[in-house]
Each structure stands twice: as C-alpha cells, then as structure tokens.
Amino acid sequence: MAQGTVKAFRMQLKPGFEAEYKKRHDEIWPELSQLLKEAGVTEYYIFLDEATLALFAFQKLAPGETTASLPALPIMKKWWDHMADMMDVNPDNSPIAIPCPEVFRL
C-alpha cells in the first residue's frame, strides 16, 4: 500500500487566545472540514506548547495528494480572516507557517 505525504509546520498563537483558538477549531466549519478531506488530508493535528504559545501542526496526505490549491479557495481565505486576530499572519491573513523538516520516523 502506498504511503502518503506527511507535512509538519509551526505557527504562533498570540497571548490570551488559547481558549478561543481551541473553541474555533472545535467548531470548525463543515464546509472547510470537507474541503480539507477532498484535498487529501486524511489526518490533521494541531498541538499547543502552552509555555511558548507555539502551535505545531501535523498533516497526513493521501498518496499523490497536495494541499497546494487550498490557498486560492474562497473558504480557505475566509477561515484565515476568521483566525487572523489570534495568530501571527502574512499580509493575506494566511498563518505564518514555518515548515518543520522530518528528522526521525519509527
């Protein structure tokens, strides 16, 4: 069975938004969730380092899938706008996402 791709990246949460960030993700829009699945995202985790407010994200993509088309989609841009008040973002409100290269796998 072919294995898909794993993507990991770090983002930064602003102080005081820990609970609201979790709440908004607990209430993720069904159309966004569906869009991610259609893009081949089979698993998506975000972890919070409470000491530094760093967010560590981990995505598993189905074989041959990529999330490259997502930034151009209106629902993705709407989500970024919705989340921009609580994260470090780029001028287009996309989160500043710093890739984390794989250094070990078991």
Automatic annotation (TrEMBL):
Signal peptide: none
Record-linked InterPro entries: Dimeric_a/b-barrel, Rham/fucose_mutarotase
Domain of life: Bacteria
Pfam families, per database record: rhaM
Listed PANTHER family: L-RHAMNOSE MUTAROTASE (PTHR34389)
Protein name as it appears in the record: L-rhamnose mutarotase
Biological source species: Dyadobacter beijingensis
Lineage: Bacteria, Pseudomonadati, Bacteroidota, Cytophagia, Cytophagales
